[in-house]
Design a protein that fits this description.
single chain; about 220 residues; 7 helices; about 0% strand
Amino acid sequence: MPSSRFADQSLRSFVDALASSEPVPGGGSAAAVAASIAAGLVAMVAALSDRPRYVQHAELHRTAVVRARELADRALALADEDADAYAGFAAALKLPRATEAETATRQSALAAAARHAAEVPLRTVEACREIATAAESLAGRSNVNAASDLVVAGLLAEAAARAAARNVEVNLPSVADRGWAEETAAETASLVGETARLAGLVRDVVERGEARSTVDLAATRG
């Protein structure tokens, strides 16, 4: 029996599923897959930088490969989670509402499902920020022949963040906890802004052909 996990499907199968009349996978899953591709590119650039010319950044490259692969896996898992979250919301929409009690139960279920449907793409936005952070750390410290791939990684991370953020925002009006909804909207906007800023830094460094000094990885870990 074929796996239902998007990570185990062919690219063609996933695209065909997107193109079908089925509601899932949808934009949230597509955003997460785009984020995974961005992370894959970051890992590739780091791996291609294992050259004597860049030996002073070798620890950064090793760390970036591992981290980017972890982020790629996380993003692919989020693609599945997003589809499941939408399915949960769709199921809540179908609950009966013939009586006051049924209506109350349905509203409660919808609010809970909407919150979950917002939390999952929020985690995708968080992953995108981390991917952009990894890409920025490599800009000017990696193989110049793969610099354009690093720019693409940043662009994809930014696009995925903006797309996932839209999926957060669309669910917030149905969340019962207005304080949480407002905080989540603000957090999402901040994460998207930071992702865009980092992606912009990658482009700027690459366009200038700037060679940057080494990163103190111990300091960045806190």
